[in-house]
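Sequence only, no structure available. Ideas?
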Amino acid sequence: MLPHQLELLSPARDADIGIEAVNHGADAIYIGGPSFGARASAENSSQDIARLVKHAHRYQSRVFVTLNTILRDDELEPARRLIHQLYDAGADALIIQDMGLLELDLPPIQLHASTQTDIRTPEKARFLQDAGLSQIVLARELTLAQIAAIRAATDPERCNIEFFVHGALCVAYSGQCYISHAHTGRSANRGDCSQACRLPYEVKDAQGRIIAHDKHVLSMKDNNQSENLAALIDAGVRSFKIEGRYKDMGYVKNITAHYRLLLDGILEQRPELARASSGECTFFFQPDPDQNFNREFTDYFVQGRKEDIGAFDSPKNPGQAIGWVSKVNADSVEIELSDPGLELANGDGLCYYDLQKELVGLQTNRVEKLGKGAEGGRIWRIFPKDPMDGFKDLRKGVEVNRNRSMDWVRGLEKKSSERRIGAWIRLQETDGGLKLSLTDEDGHCGEANIALERQSPRDPSQAEAKLREQLARLGDTLFTPLDIAIELSAPRFVPASTLNALRRDAVARLEVAREQSLQRLPRAQPVEPPVPYPEDHLTYLANVYNHKARDFYARHGVKVIAAAYESQQEEGEVSLMITKHCVRFSLSLCPKQAKGVTGVQGQVRAEPLQLINGKEKLTLRFDCKPCEMHVVGKIKRSVINQAAAVPMQFYRNRPKTQQPA
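Reply:
I predicted one. Tokens follow.
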């Protein structure tokens, strides 16, 4: 990708979803391979990836394969063989976390740094660029100023900056969360996170006082950077990444189309920028992020720290408010809609908050419109799928949301987009017949010739119009006519069958020309001699899980290298999660917030808090200088006992784990 190009990067759980992402405007797709991806249940065969690659490359879109878990020593050789298979399948790049892969004999496939590599500083970004990574996805927690500083420290000719613009937010710095492994043995760095961040917790202070009860204090709202795209471009972002390798087809279609329209709008205003792939999309629906599952939206830290980034009441989808309960019956509930033009459908998903602010789902079995007349169609009777006596606190006046529209879902199950590449069509005479040339918007050309005796048309005045009509019929091909030039010495009749054959041949040759022109993305060469890593010692937080990774860091000047947390050598209390999110700030208990407030200043102390969920207890400690929170705990003995991992001794002197004050 060139420095002036913008890339819309969409997720794919499988090849079929990836194909639709391309059809809805994605410039690139990221998808899991057969193994070693950070989404353990989103794996795909090399054959399916080859099928996706073939479709994507028709539009010069790219396919990136995630191989972004940390690997044991015994997994390095299988991973190496898999990478060769993926290269042979046509994959354009690998997204990786484990630096041990750079020590292996790999094919010349481009390498990208996963979000799991935790890129927050210009120094680390520059190091990864110099180590041979061609694209780096920055931490979601960065501000515009921090992104711009990273861009200034790196070379746009050598390394592209990628940033998440939509989807679920991991509360931890990616790659810096070990709660799942400590409590269950399921490692987030190995693609098997148990999502402890979405659980409800009781929050206690150092005196044992309850500050919050059953709140999802580690659960974030969903990321949405729709309003910040232009600012992110100015800061240096060139690849705009949508989260969601677990998401369904409807989500990927809708969110890809949404950002395609936004980026195209920017490109119209910024002629110095360009798309990273070919063709324009026509959508048969109106994209709307609110229609998909979301926990409400936040732009997180891009514009600085904000108070409303958490989805503390529920990790579920609250949907959009549509009205209020007007009557509760024995077998149904009646709802007055705020918009009389709104239509409900059988199977819609509704929900409401009970008195404890817990979200209660109400799936409709059947709906009836009432109130024709004075009420203007506002009243609907809902027959739920479940018995009425199971709906807690459902009463008159309760606000009702809709979190799934069946009409919307069914609409996206149909063909919902067309992506076409513009082409100029030129029909010319030759000595013994006709030549048809198709030149696409990227400058590729396909030509076809046919021998044909000259025939005069019955109606010379309509001859050219009929030829134009026939030539414009590009049907289900990739192409759409931009202009048609007919260069004939005199009006002539050309049989429709002849024109159809000529057009088919020219289109086929244009597709071949496009395929042959697409070059594989180049593998960046690391700087020699190897540049030093920004630190000279690494703790478990560096996720070094094999000897090749250890060799990589040693080659780059690191003196002391500890093994990854998954090697289970850290049996005491350590930071199991490091996050920019601060529970004290969100609960208005931050000393910086209290500064200068009469009656409050001096009352809020930097004391630890405790999170409790059943038998699980975690300690919150606050590092106020970088404004970060550490979730502290230790690995369970049962996890240690059941582990099959072989202990690794990388360090010369075991580093001491430092805890924030």
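Residues 597-602 have pLDDT under 50 and may be disordered.
Hope that gets you unstuck.
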